[in-house]
Amino acid sequence: MTKRQNQEERSRQTQARVTQATIECILEKGIRATSTVDVARLAGVSRGALVHHYPSKTLLMQAALEDLLSREVESVRDMATQVKAGELNFDNLLQALHEHFKGDLYMVTLEYLTNARTDPDIMKVLVTLGSKFNDSLEQIWEQLVASANHTSHQNRVALNATLCMMRGMGAQSIWRDDPELYRDMLLFWKETLLELGFSASDAKRGQPV
Known about the structure:
The protein contains 9 helices and no strands. By secondary structure, the chain is an all-alpha fold. Helix 1 packs across helix 6, helix 4 (57-84) packs parallel to helix 7 (120-145) and helix 7 crosses helix 8 (152-172). Mean pLDDT is 86; it is low at 202-209. The chain is 76% helix and 0% strand. It has helices at 3-29, 36-43, 47-53, 57-84, 90-100, 104-116, 120-145, 152-172, 179-195.
């Protein structure tokens, strides 16, 4: 490995530590209370090194958001692989989405959503990467529930109604931790989708959520 390659690798590692530390600080304190000093300390780098890569807090927040949503897209790709392998079916997908939208990464995303309302720079990044994430989910959904009974638009509406429900449950979990209620809500929604004809093939259908 050449000297330049070593420098580039160290730079990538530093950026990875900084963006991860940013996400952890946001989860603990929120975006507004997170400072570059906090992030540098948690990442184990000097503030000068942080500023070298991210000259402003705005750029740092954008980079952390891009890293966060890129990871989210990777998680969707993993789901797609499981769908293709027959390891993930309709029931399992709903449960996986529920777990996804009540986890730490989603809580960080909520911070960005709140700030994007008044920060056009964050909104720009969020719209681009959020669309990529939704597109990936739509591809999985199409694979799983494809049927001559529904158009692509109907499939998309069903998916986005599901996502809106999951996001709402995730937000509510901040102040109301009620696993039994959420389990019953998932069962209710699954039965509703099944009544509307949205399901995986009988060969792939698993046990109820």
